[in-house]
Design brief:
By secondary structure, this protein is an alpha/beta fold. The protein folds into 2 domains: 7-232 and 307-315, Alpha-Beta Complex (Spore Coat Polysaccharide Biosynthesis Protein SpsA, Chain A), CATH 3.90.550.10; 235-304. The protein has helices at 20-36, 57-67, 82-93, 114-122, 140-155, 172-178, 188-195, 218-232, 235-263, 271-304, and strands at residues 7-13, 45-50, 71-76, 99-102, 127-134, 164-171, 199-205, 311-315. The protein has an 8-stranded mixed sheet with strand order 7-5-6-4-1-2-3-8, with helices on both faces. The radius of gyration is 25 Å and the shape is elongated.
């Protein structure tokens, strides 16, 4: 094992004052352990990215940096969301690091598998995915919706690693490859597999959140899933086309049936079926307009090409 490569841990933070001191303590212990075993260069750093927090998150990052230069910080000018904050950290770290590991600040990602990720990097892997081996800490609802999300994404033709979030190692050249993807609507779980390069996985059990509240309530989870699907697949639009063809075929059959019963002299009673048909067709049309509108909205955001983030301050010595 070379042991001379620089590792940066990249941790996006949004209102994490309750958990940040403990996160910093555990990550420092892990880094010191890796230093002592000669796994990584002593130029390695722990990089916190403040994503427009409204609490004392940035003040804590400044205090950590002042106490130990191993702690670095990036402050975004405003809240830009987890994916953009993570990208900002990776793009900052790649200027000095040989490899980067992204993980959440809530200590749910098992820091003990960082060693395994680094070992797989030295074995020649540019990307190492942290994959959950079980979902014992999840509620039934979260487990059901999460597994459903991955299955839907795979059904839509999106190349995604099952049960993988954003806990991963990326080499410098993998992050440089990521920088070539210019889309504004970021869904890194779908983008990273498109980079290519040799990859591997490590499995771990996700812990309970150490402190604070989840930054992904149901509303954000649904929005995140929608972004993932519409950013990587046009199958929803094709599904609308298929439904339209089927409904048109059914309407032709109904027309033939109506003509037949008319010439047979039978009265067609049909208030119930008519009302149901009107509501069904109307609902389908609104759904179709909504799905198409979602894609048009994506095009609108992409064509404006606004910056994904703006960095206000960097603490890195």
């Amino acid at each position: 094992m070379a042991g001379t490569d620089i590792l940066y841990l990249v941790i996006p933070c949004y209102n994490e004052e309750a958990v940040l001191p403990e996160t910093a303590r555990q990550l420092l212990a892990k880094m010191n352990s890796m230093f002592d075993r000669g796994m990584i260069s002593r130029e390695s750093r722990i990089l916190f990215v403040n994503d427009g927090s409204k609490d004392r998150t940035w003040e804590i990052i400044e205090e950590l940096h002042a106490s130990n230069s191993i702690y670095s910080g990036v402050k975004l000018s405003r809240n830009k969301g987890h994916q953009n904050a993570l990208l900002a950290g990776l793009m900052t770290a790649k200027e000095k690091a040989d490899m980067m590991i992204s993980l959440d600040a809530d200590l749910q990602d098992d820091v003990d598998v960082i060693d395994q990720m680094v070992e797989k990097y030295y074995a020649g892997n540019d990307i190492v995915y942290g994959v959950r081996s079980a979902r014992k800490t999840d509620t039934f609802f979260k487990k059901f919706t999460a597994q459903g999300f991955y299955k839907i994404m795979q059904a839509m033709g999106v190349e995604i690693v099952y049960n993988h979030a954003d806990y991963r190692l990326m080499s410098k050249r993998a992050v440089e490859g990521l920088a070539q993807f210019k889309e504004v609507n970021l869904f890194l779980r779908g983008i990273v597999p498109l980079i290519g390069y040799k990859s591997d996985v490590v499995t771990y059990e996700r812990h309970e959140r150490f402190a604070g509240e989840s930054k992904y309530p149901l509303k954000k989870m649904l929005a995140f899933a929608t972004d993932g699907i519409t950013s990587f697949s046009i199958k929803p639009i094709r599904l609308i086309t298929t439904c339209g063809i089927l409904i048109f075929a059914v309407s032709i059959l109904m027309l033939l049936y109506s003509l037949a019963v008319h010439f047979m002299g039978r009265t067609v009673a049909g208030w119930t079926s008519m009302i149901i048909s009107i509501w069904a067709i109307g609902g389908l049309q609104l759904l179709a307009i909504g799905i198409v509108g979602e894609y048009i909205g994506k095009i609108y955001l992409e064509t404006k090409a606004r910056p994904k983030y703006i960095i206000e301050t960097v603490l890195d010595e």
